[in-house]
Amino acid sequence: MAGQIGKNRNIFLVWLVWPLLTLGIYHFVWWYKINREVGDFDHRIDVNPAMSVIAILFGWIIIVPPFVSIYNTGQRIATMQRDTDLTPTCNPWLGLLLSFFFGLHALYYQSELNAFWDRSRGFRGTTAYAG
């Protein structure tokens, strides 16, 4: 069940700095990476990172797919928490709601992932943050 532990990232770099510096491209790279990390950690969670990115990249044409992808990613994080006997703290509905306010779902989901990765590796007090 517990596979490769994902990467901790600075939530403000993920949410604001890197997307601004890269004209939004980083958000899609980050979205791919977090979905892949969830699948790498728990192989029972069905996730196709490329389809998740396509849904948020081109889904605006149909309107619904980006919101489904945002909700499903939050659900995957909560499932990962639950499957490791942790109380799920990630709420996909909250993530979906935050997506309407300056894209705050990125900050929320990365914060949840950082906390999960820390608990999974038995947080030792030293965590490398990268964008």
Automatic annotation (TrEMBL):
Coiled-coil intervals: none
Limits of the DUF4234 domain: 12-78
UniProt superkingdom: Bacteria
Residues spanning the membrane: 12-32, 52-72, 93-111
Transmembrane helix listed as a keyword: yes
InterPro entries associated with the record: DUF4234
Keyword NAD: no
Keyword terms, alphabetized: Membrane, Transmembrane, Transmembrane helix
Protein name (database record): DUF4234 domain-containing protein
Source organism of this protein record: Kitasatospora camelliae
